[in-house]
Design a protein that fits this description.
Elements (H helix, E strand, L loop, with lengths): L2 H13 L8 E5 L6 E10 L2 E8 L7 E9 L13 H9 L7 H14 L2 E3 L4 E3 L10 H8 L1
Antiparallel strand pairs: 1-4, 2-3, 3-4, 5-6
């Protein structure tokens, strides 16, 4: 594991821990593999874009790994959150977010990935992984 990968994991862990001020959520856009370099870009106060450089030929040279969003940007207070569904409600309804850049990014992700799914512990945007597979029997019936 490279130094950049260690630094990336450390940043995500410290920013999303209960002890950080303010408490943040991490929205992963793309997996980070074979990380060579890391850039953090403050888009606005409470919104950080993590860009990584990869030596893997299946990924672009530089790409966005994810966003770290402070809970106040989502109009949430850490002490008031009782269930994960409260965060899910804000992420599925980006119109409730007052800050324009955060609202724009969340609505873009919602449009690109088509919503969020919970697997019990984590929240995932819908991707190829969650698409329904075709029933082979029904496909065969159509061809007959």
């Amino acid at each position: 594991m490279s130094d950049a990968e260690d630094e990336l994991k450390k940043i995500i862990k410290t920013r999303t821990s209960k002890k950080s001020n303010p408490v943040c959520i991490f929205i992963k856009v793309r997996e980070a593999k074979d990380v060579v370099d890391l850039k953090m870009k403050d888009l606005t106060e409470g919104l950080l874009e993590l860009r990584v450089s990869s030596k893997n030929e299946h990924f672009p040279k530089w790409y966005t790994h994810g966003y770290i969003v402070a809970l106040p940007n989502l109009r949430l207070n850490y002490k008031d959150i009782k269930k994960k569904e409260q965060i899910l409600d804000v992420l599925t309804n980006p119109n409730r977010i007052k800050q324009p850049i955060t609202k724009q990014i969340i609505s873009k992700l919602d449009k690109d990935f088509g919503g969020i799914i919970s697997d019990g512990k984590k929240l995932f945007f819908r991707t190829e992984k969650f698409k329904k597979t075709k029933d082979p029997f029904k496909v065969r019936m159509k061809t007959m």
